[in-house]
Inverse folding.
């Protein structure tokens, strides 16, 4: 098997709660390789988002280690290059139109040129928004916004997509379409995917399924 | 363009919105503060500049006086004119007299001038409002216009002049008649105090009135353009022999205390007015703070997209800077425009309140002068920019201290 894109060992994470600490993660291990897709399910508050934050190096574990594509640290710029993130509530920049939002990761990486613009347009076309390039987020529906966010996550050709309940704010039908796109695009570009979802049907479509319970992964099926 | 600058500009001037309300208010607050500073300091500076010009116009660049009288003015004049930097010199004799016209008395200062030399030193002609300097002879006088008004004199009037010498003669029981002078000119300098209390006659007449013989009280000197008055005064003093009793002082030295007060007054005004800009900066800061709170989740987003913390901070700080730059520019334009139309504004105001005379009386000027010192402008620009940057810095620090996870979690 190829080297994993992300490899987590014995992750522990707790948060202060009053004068005690609640242990959210108690020894999580996970390896995700290129082209693989992993779904994580679990009750609300079981620590799924916490785990994704650790994977994105937006937060640090109390103990345990994570190796990202062969390196034990992940500086901001490299995060932007290696990982694309899709949030439950889209997080588009309201002042920017769809195309500028998709271009954002590229802009932060410091390369906006003809080629990246063309790529942004192509990605938007792929998610079915070719006609919406210059719409502001508030002129788009929820499903359309999440598709813009999807295009944005793919902009820098990441090796890994972290998606935290990407359909959580969408109705069933729209969510279905977004999920179709997400899984399709990841498969097409052999981008690894870690998908947090409540939806068993969506989870069933990933190559591997785990469940977070009591701070640990338990296998399903 | 780095992304944080791009985003800072985009947040200030969003693509879709035609009128960014938030930006307009911040820019306007800075602009009004700056405009006010430009206007107030411009007018203050105008008063200062006008007073300085008037001093130099009426006293020359350098004045030479003696410990008693200058007995042989022509010898001294020849000596002075040899000193490098001196363009021209003119003698004067001065005093106070009582004058009377149609039983109305006044007690003006009188100055005897050398009509052949005066114009090389003092641009008297440009202040003559009626009559002519050319008509001034030993039997005539030029009155400042408020003085003429107060005794009901006009061109052609014959006024009686009494001097201290007449008092001396009265004490010795001599019969004396006042000297009669014909008014041949009316003077308007534009300074209320001078305009109400100055009369001019020839040096000969003044020497007669005061019994001076050939002596004069002092010599006014005009320097060649660009010559430093203090340095020229020093050179003059070096050229005088020790027992001559002569001493040269630059206009600056003569009026040092007065000029210092003027400068102090202006600096105080600048200092006080800076608080206006400070208030504007606080407004900008609070608006930016609101923005940061509104944007909290985006702060987390940018981190997720690969941004460094200091770049996120810069993004907010630059918004303060941008508001400062635009606000200062708009304020400058506004301030100088107001300055340009200041007299129309005053005209309008005094017409409504009917207070033009009062203004002239108490402020000594009938036109609002303006002069913007480049130093003041630089201070205004720098402080407006500095305060706006600081206004952006506070929200920027808050943004940069926020952990991306916490920012993303906030709803
Ligand atoms: N920054 C934090 N401070 C305190 N408690 C936190 C913080 N982040 C998460 N938690 C707690 O950790 C638990 C797991 O949260 P989360 O990872 O968001 O759950 P999930 O995404 O599975 O619903 C929750 O009980 C939550 O209250
Ligand atoms: Mg969650």
């Amino acid at each position: 098997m190829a080297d994993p894109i992300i490899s987590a060992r014995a992750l522990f994470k707790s948060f202060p709660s009053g004068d005690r600490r609640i242990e959210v993660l108690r020894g999580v291990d996970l390896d995700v390789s290129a082209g693989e897709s992993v779904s994580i399910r679990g009750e609300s508050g079981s620590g799924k988002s916490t785990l994704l934050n650790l994977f994105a190096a937006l937060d640090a574990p109390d103990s345990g280690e994570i190796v990202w594509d062969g390196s034990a640290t992940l500086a901001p710029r490299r995060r932007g290059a290696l990982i694309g993130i899709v949030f439950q509530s889209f997080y588009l920049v309201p002042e920017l139109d769809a195309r500028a939002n998709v271009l954002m990761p590229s802009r932060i990486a410091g390369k906006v040129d003809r080629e990246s613009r063309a790529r942004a347009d192509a990605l938007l076309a792929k998610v079915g928004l070719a006609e919406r390039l210059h719409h502001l987020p508030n002129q788009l529906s929820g499903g359309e916004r999440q598709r813009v966010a999807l295009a944005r996550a793919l902009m820098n050709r990441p090796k890994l997509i972290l998606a935290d309940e990407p359909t959580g704010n969408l109705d069933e039908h729209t969510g279905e379409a977004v999920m179709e796109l997400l899984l399709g695009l990841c498969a097409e570009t052999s981008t690894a995917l870690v998908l947090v979802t409540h939806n068993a049907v969506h989870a069933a479509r990933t190559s591997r399924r785990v469940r977070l319970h009591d701070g640990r992964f338990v296998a399903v099926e | 363009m780095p992304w944080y600058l791009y985003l800072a500009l985009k947040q200030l001037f969003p693509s879709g919105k035609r009128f960014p309300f938030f930006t307009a208010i911040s820019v306007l607050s800075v602009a009004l503060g700056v405009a006010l500073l430009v206007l107030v300091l411009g007018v203050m500076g105008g008063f200062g500049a006008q007073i300085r010009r008037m001093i130099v116009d009426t006293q020359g660049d350098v004045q030479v006086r003696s410990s008693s009288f200058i007995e042989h003015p022509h010898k001294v004049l020849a000596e002075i004119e040899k000193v490098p930097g001196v363009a021209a010199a003119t003698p004067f004799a001065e005093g106070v007299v009582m004058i009377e016209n149609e039983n109305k008395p006044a007690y003006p200062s009188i100055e005897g001038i050398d009509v052949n030399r005066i114009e090389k030193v003092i641009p008297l002609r440009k202040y003559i409002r009626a009559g002519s300097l050319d008509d001034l002879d030993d039997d005539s006088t030029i009155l400042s216009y408020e003085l003429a008004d107060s005794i009901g004199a006009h061109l052609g009037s014959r006024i009686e002049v009494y001097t201290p010498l007449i008092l001396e003669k009265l004490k010795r029981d001599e019969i004396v008649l006042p000297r009669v002078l014909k008014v041949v000119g009316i003077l308007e300098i534009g300074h209320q105090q001078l305009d109400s209390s100055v009369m001019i006659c020839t040096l000969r007449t003044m020497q007669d009135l005061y019994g001076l013989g050939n002596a004069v009280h002092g010599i006014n000197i005009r320097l060649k353009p660009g010559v430093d008055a203090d340095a020229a005064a020093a050179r003059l003093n070096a050229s005088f022999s020790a027992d001559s009793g002569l001493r040269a002082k630059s206009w600056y030295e003569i009026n040092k205390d007065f000029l210092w007060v003027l400068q102090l007054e202006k600096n105080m005004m600048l200092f006080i007015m800076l608080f206006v800009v400070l208030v504007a900066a606080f407004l900008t800061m609070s608006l930016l703070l609101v923005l940061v709170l509104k944007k909290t989740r985006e702060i987390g987003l940018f981190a997720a997209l690969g941004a460094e913390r200091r770049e996120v901070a810069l993004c907010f700080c630059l918004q303060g800077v941008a508001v400062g730059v635009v606000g200062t520019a708009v304020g400058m334009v506004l301030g100088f425009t107001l300055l340009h139309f200041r007299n129309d504004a005053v005209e309008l105001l005094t017409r409504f309140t009917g207070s033009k005379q009062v203004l002239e009386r108490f402020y000594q000027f009938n036109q609002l002068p303006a002069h913007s010192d480049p130093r003041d402008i630089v201070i205004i620009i720098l402080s407006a920019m500095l305060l706006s940057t600081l206004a952006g810095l506070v929200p920027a620090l808050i943004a940069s201290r926020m952990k991306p996870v916490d920012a993303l979690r906030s709803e």
Notes: Chain B has 17 helices and twelve strands.
